[in-house]
Amino acid sequence: MSDRRLGSADLFPTDHPVEPAHMVGRAGDVDRVVSALLGGGNIVLAGPRRTGKTTVADAAMEACRRDGAYVATVDLFELVDASELAQSLTIRLLGNRAALKRALGEASGAGRQILAVLRQAAVARARHDLGDGVELVFEVGLDRQDPDDHARLRAALELADRLAQRDGKRVVIFFDEFQEIVGADKRFGDPDRITRLMRSVLQRSRGVSVLFAGSIEHLMRDLFAPTDRALSQFGAFHELAPITTAQWQTGIRARLGDDDTTITDDALDRVVSLGEGHPRATMLLIQQAHAGSVEELRREIDHALVVQALERAMRHERLRHDQQLELIRTLGRHAERMAIRVAAGAELYANLKPQQAARGLAGLHDRGLIAHGDRPGRWTVIDPLLRRYLASRRVEPLSFVRSASDSLTISDKSVS
Ligand SMILES: Nc1ncnc2c1ncn2[C@@H]1O[C@H](COP(=O)(O)OP(=O)(O)OP(=O)(O)O)[C@@H](O)[C@H]1O
Ligand SMILES: [Mg+2]
Prior knowledge:
It is built from 18 helices and nine strands. By secondary structure, it is α/β, with parallel strands linked by helices. Helix content is 54%, strand content 9%. A five-stranded parallel β-sheet has the order 2-3-4-1-5, sandwiched between helices. The protein has two domains: 213 residues, 3-Layer(aba) Sandwich (Rossmann fold); 168 residues, no CATH class. It binds adenosine-5'-triphosphate (ATP) and magnesium ion (MG). The site of adenosine-5'-triphosphate (ATP) has 20 residues, from helix 3 and helix 13. Magnesium ion binds next to helix 3.
C-alpha cells in the first residue's frame, strides 16, 4: 500500500459534475433519459441547484454517444449572447464528424478565429455536403454587430437536423442552465422570440432530440408548462430519483477504496444521515472526513472524524453561505427572516401578516432554497448545511437560540 493519498476533492468533487463512472445512484435516471432521447423525445431536468442535474445529463449524453448518436452539449451559463450560443452549438455539432473534429482541434486556441480557420479547410466540403444555407453557421462569431440577430442561431439549430439526415444519425443536444435563456439580463435577446425560434426549428427536426436542464425551477416550469409559452409541452419533465442510503453507502465505500481507505459502519451511517441525501452536502461531508483522515495519516474514517468533518464542511462553506444570505436578502423584505425561521423550525407566521410571510416563502421557494416539508404548511431548507448556517443566525426569541444550538450540539455528538 503506498503512502501517497488521493486528493479528497478529486475523490469527492463538490464544485463540478461527477464523472459518469463515479456517479452514486441514479443509473435508472440515466437509462430513462437515454431511452427517451434516443426514441426521439425531449426531456426537461428541472430541480434545485447542486442536486445532480448536470451529472445525470452528462452521463446520459455519454451513453447516447456510445449508442452511436451525435451529441452536442451547450452550457448557457458560459455564453454571453445569442451569437456565442450559435457558435458554441455549431462547433459542438460539427465536432461529431471526425474530419471536422480534427480541423477544429487544430484550430483550437485560435479563439474567435476558429471558424475563420475552418473556412479554408473544411467549409467548402461541408457546404457541398450539408447543402445550401449552411454557410451562415460558419460566419457565426465573425460579426457581432447585432446581438439580437437570431438568424445564426436558426442556422445552427437547423444544422443539427441536416447532420442527422445526411449522416443517418440521431442528434442529441443538451442545453444546460437553460433558465438563462429567459434571464433578467436578456442577453440572448427577447426571451419570447428566442424560445419560439427554438421550438419552430426543433419541432421540424425529426432527427434531433433535446435535453434541457435548469436550476431555477419555476422558470423551467414556466418555460415548459402548458401555457401559451413557446416551449410548452415540448419536453417531458423528468424528476431525479433520490439517492438511497444503500447507494450512498456502496458508493462512498467504493470511492474510499480507491484510496485504500475504509470507514466504520457508524461513521458511514452518520455521514449519510447528516447529508440527508442531498448530493452535494453528502459529498462535501465525506470529502472533509477523507481530508481529516489524510491529515491524521489514518486509513480508517471513524465517527470522530465525521464529527470533525461537519465543522470543517461548515467552515469550508462559510463564504458560500454568506453569499447565499446576501442573495436571500435581495428576495424581499421578509425573506431573510422567513429563511431563518424555516431553518430553525420556528413558528413561521409570528409577528408577520400572512401575506408578508407567504411572499417571503414564495421567494425562497422560487429560488430553489426551500421545499415543502413532510406536512402541509411545513417547509424545509433543502441544503442541510445551509440550514445549519441559517438556523445558527436565529436571534428571536432567546429561548430559540438555546434550543436551536442545543439540538445542533446534541445531534452532532450523538453516538449511533
Ligand atoms: N449522482 C451523484 N453522485 C455523487 N455526487 C453527486 C451526484 N450528483 C451530484 N453530486 C454532487 O453534487 C454536486 C453538484 O452536482 P451537479 O453539478 O451535477 O448538480 P447540478 O444540479 O447540475 O448543479 P447546478 O445547479 O450548480 O448546475 C457534485 O459536485 C457532487 O458533489
Ligand atoms: Mg448543473
